[in-house]
Design goal:
The strands form two sheets. Strands 6-5-9-7-8 form a five-stranded mixed β-sheet. It has a four-stranded parallel β-sheet with strand order 3-2-1-4, with helices on both faces. The protein is globular and about 75 Å long. By secondary structure, the chain is α/β, with parallel strands linked by helices. About 40% of the residues lie in helices and about 15% in strands.
Length: about 450
């Protein structure tokens, strides 16, 4: 059974965001409009007050799909009403290893995302909205530009929309492939033409954002939910998911599974269902050793029976020692050394650190140096085991200490993300590190 066949086993009602799997050519404006496209935007602008739109999104319980899970409507309500103009920025930087959901939305169902962006802009009365894309998405940016022009020609963007007096323009902006620009304030700095480095907070973007003005920053997947909420209502939206984590979520599944890919499922679906029912399980003879539920930046979950049966939502995943984050689920089987895995993750974070704050800049360098030394400890057979010449048990302790010293001292979340796999890996899989530094080939 291939990936497409596996997707066909999923209930059609689950496809709210990945609607291209139900409706052919929905990335064409005419097809999207034939299937209810932009009716929600027309409804919001023509029949609702901006505050009513915000209240409806707030009542839906929609939480940010970029990683933090912050309630979307509350974020919109925080926008400073005494400082104008307002801006909206869609975070399409998607640089987290293991995350590829936003790209599929923009490639295959972009008009739903753009409609959500437009509704958000109306709700906070922004007349300009920006889509900030990672530098590698240049072909996607060109496609979005064409779709934005189509919307303008159809009277869905521009001046005096639907005769309401409200005006809106949408622009795309390409970054330069920097992971740090996925952090909202670094993204705003980059959008302003400055070096992509995070700002000291507070103030937060809803009061001091793009060009120093109130700004809402939302993830692509988050915004793609908005037209459905406005069109169908709060009760309909809450039919799927849980009380505190309503709606569906796109889970980007990768790692040691037979059918990696994007799976849109109700929040609260278990890891077991995602990995074995939809992902086809693991290669023959292998078992799940660990799960990274939020890409490279997540803690390592020990794959116990309890963990596999844990609902994937914002309340239950912390009970097994991690955060749901962007739901980029990386499956690690029993053939993988956690020490090797840590070496790869910290190398990535060292490379992507912007260098603005010392704990992250120096800490990621030393974590990478130590992790590499530990991983390659057994390659020098002439050195006595545990001698420290090529990595020792003391290096494992030092790696743990360096990671602990980074915690709570960084300007933005990148430094915090860089230590999650390190600390949980050493704590929960100590034998993998011992094998590298205490045994010889």
């Amino acid at each position: 059974m291939d990936g497409d066949q596996m997707r066909l086993t999923m209930p059609k009602s689950h496809y709210r965001l990945l609607r291209q799997r139900l409706i052919s050519d929905i990335d064409q404006l005419a097809v999207y409009r034939q299937n209810g496209g932009f009716e929600a935007f027309h409804k919001a602008v023509s029949t609702m007050q901006p505050a009513q739109v915000t209240d409806q999104v707030k009542a839906s319980g929609l939480r940010g799909r970029g990683g933090a899970g912050f309630p979307t409507g509350i974020k919109w309500a925080f926008v400073d009403q005494k400082n104008w103009p307002h801006y909206v920025v869609a975070n399409a930087d998607e640089s987290e290893p293991g995350t590829f959901k936003d790209r599929e939305i923009m490639e295959e169902n972009a008009f739903q995302f753009l409609e959500g962006l437009a509704i958000c802009a109306f709700a906070v009365q922004a007349k300009a909205a920006y889509v900030y894309l990672r530098g590698e998405f240049w072909q996607l940016a060109a496609k979005l530009d064409k779709q934005i022009i189509e919307m303008e020609n159809a009277g869905l963007l521009g001046e005096n929309l639907f005769g309401s007096g409200y005006s809106l323009r949408i622009y795309t902006h390409l970054g330069a492939g920097a992971y740090i620009c996925g952090e909202e304030t670094a993204m705003l700095e980059s959008l302003e033409g400055k070096l992509g480095q995070p700002r000291l907070r507070p103030p937060f973007p809803p009061s001091f954002g793009l060009y120093g003005k109130p700004t809402v920053v939302n993830n692509v997947e988050t915004l793609a939910n908005v037209p459905l909420i406005v069109a169908n209502g709060v009760d309909w939206y809450r039919q799927l998911g849980t009380e505190k984590s309503p709606g569906t979520k796109i889970f980007s599944l990768s790692g040691n599974v037979l059918y990696p890919g994007n799976y849109e499922l109700p929040l609260g679906t278990t890891f077991r269902e995602l990995i074995f029912t939809h992902g086809g399980g693991l290669p023959e003879g292998r078992s799940v050793k660990a799960i990274m539920p939020a890409g490279a930046s997540s803690s390592l979950i020990v794959a116990t029976e309890e963990a596999l049966d844990t609902p994937m939502d914002y309340e239950n995943v912390p009970k097994v020692g991690a955060q749901l984050g962007s739901a980029s689920v990386i499956v690690v089987d029993d053939s993988v050394s956690i020490a090797w895995l840590i070496d790869k993750t910290v190398h990535f974070f060292k490379h992507e650190s912007c260098g603005k704050c010392t704990p992250c800049r120096e800490g990621t360098f030393w974590m990478s140096h130590l992790a590499e030394q530990i991983t390659h400890a057994h390659t020098n057979a002439s050195s006595p085991a545990g001698s420290g010449a090529d990595g020792s048990i003391e290096d494992v302790r030092l790696l743990q200490e360096v990671a602990s010293q980074i915690r709570g001292k960084c300007l933005c979340a990148l430094g915090e993300f860089s230590i999650e796999a390190v600390l949980t890996g050493i704590e929960r899989f100590p034998q993998d590190f011992q094998l590298h530094v205490l045994e010889k080939p």
